[in-house]
Amino acid sequence: MAEFTALRRTTLQPPEDITRGLFERGRRVVRAHPVATDALLAAVLLILSTVWLAGSRFAGPQAALVQTALLAAIVARRICPSAVFLLTSAIAFGQWLVGVPLIGDGALLIALYTVAAHQSRARAVAAAALLEAGVVMASVRWEPAGTLPRSLLFLTGTVVAALFAGLATASGSRYLAWMDERARRLETERDQQSVIAAAAERTRIARELHDIVSHSLSVVITMADAAAVVGRADPGRGAEAMGEVSEAGRRALSDMRAMLGVLRTDDPPAVAPQPGVAQLGALAEQVRAAGLAVELTVAGAPFPLGAAAELTAFRIVQEALTNTLRHAAARNVQVVIRYDAPGLQVRVADDGTARQGSGQPGSGQPGHGIAGMRERAALHGGTVQAGPGPGGGWLVTAMLRPAQPAGAAGPA
Questions:
Q1: Distances in Å between the alpha carbon of 109 and those of 84, 86, 328?
Q2: In what order do the strands lie in the sheet with 343-350?
């Protein structure tokens, strides 16, 4: 039984999308050709009214002429609604003087509807009041409903219905126009958000690539210089140092491929987890291989930071060590990571030169390393300070305040 009902509904009732499509197509045709549509409407009403008039006792050339004039006027109803309404009202007044009731008087209701739908409410109310005066005159003279009260009630009802139908159409048109404008505005905002998101993503990728390339190349250059010096006196140690250079280059290349591979859309590769505090030991070993003594200390009771905050802490330490390798001429670096719920403190101090350039320690050239560290820290409600240390050298301190995951609590 259920299958039969579903089959009958499928075969007898048109799908909703087809019905909606036909309705929308019809609306577009009407809006594109308003005069032709109204002319077709007037022709259909004229044929029906003529059939009625031919069978009534009021048939005659004069009545046919008046009825034709009434219905012909509505062809231009959407071009000049108020003028068409006044014209049909004048023709109807002449009809009242002649004393011939006609079914073509429905043109007055169509004209009133058009004024209410396309003109101001004040004009609509004025037109309805004028037409109501005509209702009183027609009811008194012809009593189309049999009695005067019934005629007044019936004809007044048609006037009110035409008025409110036009007002409802006007309200719907304003609502649709508002919806169209809102859709266009939302589309524009969506495009703007896409541009902003793309710019932010480009900035993020550029920052990651800067950290990877700058650190890796600094290590490679330092180790290559050391290998060149050592190779003259001890070729064996020089070959070992060049092997470490090669390994550092491979790691840098692997990191770059992983980062750039994210941008591919055809076959995205498996992305390794982003580094965090746990990978600082490996970073320290890599820097030690370049000839810089690194002392790493982790203090406090660890608590969940979140992947983004851990990556930020790692990149801050990496950038600070890279700047030390490139600019500070230091021999020793102390890296301290202190868990102090709900924040994380990062401290990197070296014993090198403490000259401040335009963004990088010990350099007179502008750089983006310290600015990048500050941007990263700001994403987690933190700050970064960089400058000469109290006992000499260069000091970088950072404080991160990441939002803890739900259910995670720091130590009491």
A1: 12, 12, 91
A2: 293-299, 332-340, 343-350, 394-400, 383-388
pLDDT tens-place string over residues 185-242: 888 888 888 778 777 767 766 676 666 666 667 777 777 776 677 667 777 776 776 7
What is d(CA 188, CA 194) in angstroms, rounded to the nearest whole number?
10
At 302-356, the pLDDT tens digits run 888 888 888 888 989 988 888 888 777 788 899 999 998 888 999 999 988 755 4
Please report, to the nearest 10 degrees, the dihedral formed by the alpha carbons of residues 193, 198, 200, 201 taken in order.
140
Decide: 339 and 306 in contact? Cβ < 8 Å.
no
What does DSSP assign to residue 324? I
Task: Provide the CA 277 distance to its chain's centre, in angstroms.
Answer: 36
Phi, psi of 337 (to 5 degrees): -115, 120
Encoded amino acid at 226, one letter: A
Q: Which two tokens stand for residue 293?
A: 């003594």
Encoded amino acid at 98, one letter: V
| Alpha-carbon span 48 to 312, nearest angstrom | 81
Residue pair 92/112 in contact (Cβ under 8 Å)? The answer is no
